[in-house]
Amino acid sequence: MAFNVNEWLTNILKGDVVYSYVGQVSSDLITQALDEIEYKLEQDGVNPKMIRKVYNVLIECLQNLFHHSLKDVEGVYEGDRFGAFKVVVNDTGYVVATGNYVKNEIVQVLKDRIEQINSLSREEIKSLYKMILNNEEFSAKGGGGLGMIDIAKRTGSRLGYEFHQIDKKYSFYNLNIYISS
Amino acid sequence: MEPISIEGTPKTPTVNFDAESGKIEVKGRSIPENSIEFYKPLVDWLEAYAGSPASLTEVNVQLEYFNTSSSKCILDVFKKLEVIFKSGNEVVINWYYEEDDEDMLEAGEDYQSIIRIPFKMIEIEE
Predict the structure, then answer these.
(1) CB contact at 8 A, B115 and B79
(2) Regarding the domain delimited by B4-124, which CATH topology (the fold level of the hierarchy) does it fall under?
């Protein structure tokens, strides 16, 4: 069966859905989603520390979608900054899933980067963060992968991921972030 | 020097830079997609200010959230302040964080370990 992003979004992650979106990830959409999710968690009486964690994780992963999603994927969509994401709450805490299309040639690079982050201890992640922060080469776009390291540092959990190959050129990249209480 | 006074938005902080009093304030949320665009004028201002700074520059940073792209820009701001400090002027950085926001305290400590300026960590009670 061909990969379908709407189906993927419906089935990914177990738990009560806090927010779910598929489409263009614009700056305004990010502002609006952050605002709505923050409001919802406040209304649900979630403790401020957890709200902060979820909010911080969302900022980084939504801005990753904003900066890195591809323009025009042949046969899939036309336009800019296409992405999908979902936030759920279950017995383990909050979980965020993001998805966007990537070129097949960067799949291995992404896998290696995530595996590398997952292999590090908390202390190693902290010093890697500081090293990249203080590195002149790092671009403001997050070229050093600081966003993903920040997420790992804040959650203390391993990043989950999956790649669904679409065709010879493209894959769908799914990142899952676990924020436990 | 003309002071800088910028109202905060949901994604950018309130900024008040005043050369005469030597007060530098950044407060609120700093989570824009394009941080360089926002911080460039601030860094430029500090560079000019370094030419004839106040005898004491007091920096108040009170951020609720900041993204990784701002973190680099904030470091650039601190590096400009470090130049002022190193040329023999008094500079103090007050880093405010909310009670139980360990991540924000840790972020301040990261800057403290990189920048050679006295930092004061100040906890705000909720």
Answers:
(1) yes
(2) Transcription Regulator spoIIAA (3.30.750)
- pLDDT > 70? residue A137: no
Q: Quick one: average pLDDT of B64-74? A: 94
Distance CA A112, CA A98 (A): 18
User: Contact B43/B30 with Cβ under 8 angstroms?
Assistant: no
B68 near A CB under 8 A: yes
Partner B contacted by A48 (CB < 8 A): yes
Range of the domain at A63: 5-180
Asked if residue A54 lies in contact with residue B24, where contact means CB atoms within 8 angstroms, the answer is: no
Go through chain A and tell me how many residues it has.
181
Q: Which residues of A touch B35 (CB under 8 A)?
A: 140
Q: What confidence category does residue A77 fall into, taking pLDDT thresholds of 50, 70 and 90?
A: confident
A60/B34 Cβ within 8 A:
no
Q: Which residue has the higher pLDDT, B120 or A69?
A: B120
Q: Are A33 and A149 in contact (CB under 8 A)?
A: no
Lowest mean pLDDT among A128-137, B20-29, B46-55, B86-95: A128-137
Enumerate the domain spans of chain B. Answer: 4-124
Q: How many domains does chain A have?
A: 1
Q: Do B103 and A129 touch (CB under 8 A)?
A: no
Name the CA dihedral angle for A127, B41, B97, A118, rounded to a multiple of 10 degrees. Answer: -30
Average pLDDT, stretch B86-90?
95
- For chain A, helix (H) and strand (E) counts, in that order, are 6, 5
Query: Looking at the complex, does the CB of residue A63 fall below 8 Å from at least one CB of chain B?
Result: yes
Q: What is the pLDDT of residues A95-111, one digit of tens each?
A: 999 999 999 999 999 99
